[in-house]
Amino acid sequence: MSEHRRYKCENDYKPDENRNKGASRWSHCRKRGADGVLRKSNAEEEPARDQRCSQSSRRPESFTTPESDGPVSRVKNWGDEVEAEEMRSNVRRDMHRYRRRILAADFPQRDRKISSGSSDSRDSRDSKDSPAKGDMETDETTLVRRQKQINYGKNTLAYDRYIKEVPKHMRQQGVHPKTPNKFKKYSRRSWDQQIKLWRVKLHAWDPPAEEGGDLQQIEEIDFDEIMDFEFDVECSADTESQCPTTNAPSLSLTEDSFTGTPKKMMKMDEDAEMS
Amino acid sequence: MENSSKEDYKIQSFDLETQKLLKTALKDPGSVDLEKVSNVIVDQSLKDQVFSREAGRICYTIVQAEVKQTNGSVFRRNLLNRLQQEFKAREETRKRSTEEWVCLVCFICNIFDYLKVNNMPMMALLHPVYDCLFRLAQSDALKNEEEVDCLVLQLHRIGDQLEKMNMQLMDELFNLLRDGFLLQEDLSSMGRLLLLEILEFRAGGWTLSDTAQKYYYSEVTD
Hints:
The complex is a heterodimer. Chain A has helices at residues 9-12, 51-55, 78-115, 140-154, 157-165, 188-202, 215-232, 237-240, 263-272. By secondary structure, chain A is an all-alpha fold. In chain A, helix 3 (78-115) packs across helix 4 (140-154). Chain B contains 13 helices and 2 strands. Chain B has helices at residues 2-9, 16-27, 34-47, 49-70, 74-88, 90-96, 98-114, 123-136, 139-142, 145-165, 167-183, 189-203, 210-217; strands at 116-117, 120-121. Chain B has a two-stranded antiparallel ribbon. In chain B, strand 1 and strand 2 form a beta hairpin. The termini of chain B are far apart. Chain A binds chain B through residues 1, 3-4, 7, 10, 13, 15, 61-68, 77-83, 85-86, 89-90, 93, 155, and chain B through 71, 73, 76-78, 80-81, 83-84, 89, 91-92, 117-118, 120, 122-125, 127, 130-131, 134-135, 137-138, 140, 169, 172, 175-176, 179.
């Protein structure tokens, strides 16, 4: 019965009402309203009817106050909101999966550790690859930011072509680009650099461009055209001899004919080792 | 085969060309203008009561199809933003046409029901849906049978989900409904019946007891 009066908003409702006019909890402290207009000294100041109403600066057109997980900009459209929501829930889901995977991997190790008296799980076979729970990045904002950067890289044609050409079990460390692991602890700079290097490496799989840019690009185009031709004829013996220089995309199919990774790739390998 | 798929999505009310567009969108979303498709769907759902109650399903299918084909979410984004516009203008819509307003509420709730994000309802729609229901619980709306009918329909369909996501708001909404039932004099008897039923429905944990079911839904024997 008591709540009934709270929702008399229908009488106050003006569809085009500027939300910046009118009283809010703090309006008596301000000389001007949010829209810049000088307030009258004893303006229509409705006492905060309830906590929620005043917190949202009395928005009579809404009966409820929006809640969100993090900072919310005032002007938001539903499309963006839902996409952000989806990203957050995807990241959370990934985190649970990752945790389970890591725990499953660490479990046999932990048994031995406990029996030998050592409780430092960081000694497990490769601390880089299987961080203990405490070494994992769990901050949602960071994870979402990192995931966005990963998504930019994965939304490229180069990435599509890469994953089609090189199945996971054929990938060689250092030679083939590897998506940075967003759950490992890295400094911001370190992470950004890893992303940059990863994306540069992915460019090797760019589709052939219409017009050549700089020399490097032209070289890439030549490789791609030759490689595509090879794939078309299913790497028959004839075509292998046409391609003396190597290119990573065809590693999985014509390994015998390779002399080694091209110079361009090797330089990047050295830089990538720092991770 | 074709007839049954039309039936599933209730698109018989569209003209043939639009039906074709929708069917293409379902199979090959990348090949159509998804913004246009979303507008077509929203427009129709504001006019067609039957469609507004079922449009969620076709929207869900298009969203899934787009993700599968292009990993994109153009359709969903356009749909939601258009829906947001309509939501913002809901009071004007209500003044202009009760039927359109009721269709809008049905549609928003249907979208809330079907378009889930990782199997969770979209948080972004939670308060807008509650806003619509609170509006329907105002005294000027309760006296219209049409609006009460819409209100109880939505609560039957998604009340339990809404309550799970925000118990407090549901409690407040039902306080209004209780007050309306008890105190409001200009309610029609059907309006009162609908309210009583929904009060019992929620009290029973979003289900009706057998006796209540018999009372409200069985044929009256002379």
